[in-house]
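User: ok so my PI wants both of these folded by tonight, can you help

Assistant: No problem, let's get them done. Here's the first:
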Amino acid sequence: MNISLRVAYGLKPNEDALTLTSALTQLNSSARQIGVRSRSGSPIEKWPKELTYSLEDRVKEARLFRSSREQIRRNQNLNSEQKMTLLRRLRRESNLWHFDQLRLAHQAIFGDDPVRQRFMTFWWNHFSVGNTKGTRFYTGDLYWNVIGNGIQGTFAELLYNVTKHPAMLTYLDNVYSIGENSDKGVRAKLNPDRRIRVGLNDNLARELLELHSVSTSAHYTEVDIKNTAKILSGWGWQFNNERVWKRLVKLGLTDLSEPFIDHHHEPGDKVVLGKRYSTGIFSSGQESLKELIEDLARNKHTIRHLSKKLCQHFINENPSEKDILLIESAWHDSKGDLRVVHRNVLERAFEAINQPKFQWPITWTFSILRIFGANIFAGWEELESDPFFDGGGSRLYREIGQNFWSKRQPDGFSLKQEDWTSSEHMDRRMRVSNLVFSYGNPGISCDEVISRLGMTRKTRNLVSKGRTEAEKFTLLTCSPEFMGG
């Protein structure tokens, strides 16, 4: 398997072979964001500034969408068919996440930093955020800004910034977590007739421990989860709720980078994994979360858990103990500096080139398009009119079974080959391969790709059995070597 398929998205037709030096340069780059104005041959340009949304823009659009949707649903002058027509129009007009979907594809196919993108996608999957309660509006910011910038720092910083991001707080229901003994909780007890909603929600607390950091190997307890939920109480609000937003504006609580409401926070000491976190006079709910995150980030179970996942993603599905220990050592020595950790992952991936490493469907799709100089994604000017993949490519993401904007589970997409090689998944890949050949205008032949990637005689013999160029294209792109199996 060519190294460019293992750690990047393959080589563009005129791109130099990927070396460890060039891979490290990509990883640490701040490459320009590529955009395709039109799929029909217009020049590739920088992604438009007007389609680069700030977090504030995204939350504002989410509020507007929700309030407009509620107005349509409550309108008693409209019948059900009229309401559905207006709701469909509203969804089309409020689809800024479709530009995020296009931007992801354009950068992968035409960009100069595929290695960096692969690491960003790894962490995006690790910190899984499914589509619910407006998260489609925010998840692009989580990817481009929080993770894109975060991989240049420490894991502790990344974990903290992801945990308190509106996408994560919304997805795992922390926006509803209000301490029973908080100021608001006390008011609720004193005014039972007002139906003030209070109570802890432990969804984010549970996933913070189980998935994002120490994993079940740390043998945490339900008490640890509950106390983590207490530390997280007060973080977040219903970001897409106009009524809630107006109340927060009156209180001056509009900083989306620190969405903490002190009077929702559960007071008192909390013990997590044997350590006491205080909210006394010299501490606060915000400081307690940061302290907890720092402890979780440097916990040996976290380091082990994440070192293994990185190996599984970039080296081998069943990594050796030696590989895991190598990444663990880099983690310990650098105190969680992701630049050092990722460099060691890359070094080991280059050494393990002969080990099989199956590609995710989305990685495979982007690789085909990049390698063959093809494109089946719309340009931003074609977003509403593209005849094949309206909605910024969402149909294609659904077709390959890996849509990061879908209602997915908190544990993310599987790293196991067996979960992507059923007859259904292989049928999907064959359909996508045929689609790329038929409509993507590949710029180079299969023979050229085989030569450029230095593919094995076994793959050459397989492809030679194709009677037409279309058959050769499918045999090559769906071959074990190209897919990494």
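One down. Here's the second:
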Amino acid sequence: MSVYDVAIIGGGPSGLAAAAYTAGFQLQPVLIAPTFGGKASYDFRLNGQHYPTPIWGLETVRLFETHVRNQMIAHYADEVAKVQRTANREFTIELATGAPVQARTVIIATGAKPQRLYIPGEQEYWGRGVSFSALSHAALFRGRDVVVVGNGERTQVAILKLAHLAHHVYWISTTTHEATMARLRQFENHPKVTPLFGWELQRILGGDCVTAVEIGTDYTTRQLTADGVFVELGLIPNIEFARGLVEFNAETGHIPVNQRCETALPGLFAAGDVTDVYAEQITVAIGEGVKAAISAWEYLVTVPK
């Protein structure tokens, strides 16, 4: 069985950038991902827009994808079931359907998926008014009515960003615990924010894009007119296959890395939204993938085979 210099798990912006750069360093990489593109594959549109909103960094991601294909970098279109460290300090990557892959180093770039509500309309209007990242899409809602769902730090950040841009912000949260109430105090007198504690978002309505939501309590339901819904419940990193290799961040579940994208395990690197320094931006993910590639190359040239 051949041993690759670096196995890159994930075909999104970080993974593609890492694959292109490691190949450019004259290493022998292998890219393991069912598909290419990741978050760059999604566009976003609102009512009144004739074209989807441009995605910053999309063209760069496509250039990396073309480079990976043209360079004929080894690619397994499969899911990873488990990554294990071998006795000789290399890695065995067990695939869901294929034979295991051996590599001297591993870069994890599998991203994160949003926590969802699983209500009618959420999946249907994803990218057509429904967003899971105010950091990415808040600027598109200038002068519009929006709904924000959640009660954590991400929710607070979303409301802070949207309160300065949107026409009005409806904040929906079923919890009334002390920490949430403390965060609420900075918004309770804001003229553009209406807190709706004790209500649940039950359904998202619309035509081509979101136009309204249905909310309810144990006793009643009502509709709110809105152009968008931000579900800010958090991100779930796609890293179950790495459990046991390194300790995950106790609060968020992400992989801790330093400024060089190094994990606590020598030879194991991580980049993008799977790490605890994620920024939910394609351009940041690309840069992190490049950093991980550089760190992997430096590790390989200093550690004897």
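The mean pLDDT is 89. The chain is about 20% helix and 25% strand. Good luck tonight!
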